Amino acid sequence: MDSRRTSGLLLPVSALPSRYGIGDLGPAAFQFADLLTRTNQRLWQVLPVGPIGPGASPYSSPSTFAGNPLLISPEPLVEDGLLTEDDLAPLTELPADHVDYARLVPRKRKVLRTAFRRFRADVSTPEATRVQQFRASQSAWLDDYALYAALKDAHGGSAWTEWSSALVRRDLEALKRARDEHETAIERHVYWQYLFHRQWTALQAYCHARDIRLFGDLPIYVAPDSADVWAHQERFRLDDDGTPTSVAGVPPDYFSPEGQRWGNPLYRWDRMEEHDFAWWTERLRRAFELFDLVRLDHFRGFDEYWSIPAGHDTAIDGSWESGPGAAFFRAMEDEFGELPVVAEDLGIVTDSVGALRDTFDFPGMAVLQFAFGGGPDNDFLPHHHRRNMVAYTGTHDNNTIVGWWRDDLSDKERNFAHSYLNLPDTNPDESVHRQALRAMMASVADRVVTPLQDVIGLGSEGRINTPGTMGDNWAWRFTPDQIAEEDETRLAQLTHLYGRASGYGD
Description:
Number of strands: 12
Shape: globular
Strand content: 5-15%
Strand order of the largest sheet: 9-6-3-2-1-12-11-10
């Protein structure tokens, strides 16, 4: 993996500005790439770009392979004559500073249905041929996903475990009947995936031409109600009805006396290995098509994972079980060569987890907001960073750096951070984001990624997600007027000052 000093910004695609209720793959995405170029940034880190699940979480998706139709930009469809400005009027009524998913989803789906209906009116066009070529090239996952999505629509959104027993069991005759009965809906979902693919690859090419690398995020587990689990039940710990028998989570600790019960079905790693990790191979293949660098969420789970009996409401009675370990990553290296991945190794890192990470030379992570407990020996402090890591002021699960300074620190931690970051005694909350950015840029870590909110100094109103809560998560968006010229200038200067301005193409 390239070890030149670089830096980048973390910004979900959904957080981009647009006139249509949610950030998308349209003009604002290309403009953000231009901002990255102007400020000498070489990485754009995003959150998972799959269809959203309950609570609008990108980490609980109905498919680990598919793209999120909500991120499809309407502008190219207007240019193609598939939509009109009148079609888009309901979307322009939505707020500009956050995503109102309850209002957005039905309106955006209606707009995309309209585009599909007009596209389907003439199947002899070159575009129709390209859709079929895309469908053939992605058939390993797309056929199952499109059928799953069509059936979910037909069942009013109910989970696949609530469908008929023949569909739950994937009886071949039942699947054939379903494909025939829902042919139009299946084609619609294929078309939406094609549109996402077309727009994503255009943005990808634009970024690559400017030496910007797209940095994605891959959750280790998949949602129980997903095309992935429905289509590959034998690879998950399920009973005969498709209900998980063991689920994922983490054990109790000082911060969470009952632990965390995530509810994702656990893998049958023995069966995965018997099939040479074929499903995971295709999963990573898809991720590497979309991204130049991929963060493996909950990296510890590849070494050992917390297994919770599905009937238990908390994580207390779980137990540690061995993950696939080095055998998994050797198999992936045999397929792909050097793996462009980053290990999300936050939290407790055991010796075996660290050894697994280091055996394959994966970069780990360091987060500044975790650095000020425990005194000067804390490994997350910049003077303890390693070259082979990605350093952050915070991630999508953290408060903004200004919000953290104002709301999250004990007096002892705040005093330590005040001294370490060399903050002024007067109005330190006005400069903490600038000093935090400087500390990260000066780090020995080869890669630094900063949430956009920490470049422009937003408070808690700019937080993306608060783990363990429901409500306003995943909704934040920025507006163009929030980025001042002085913010861009400062970012560019710090990037150059600390030797991170050299591009991949230099």
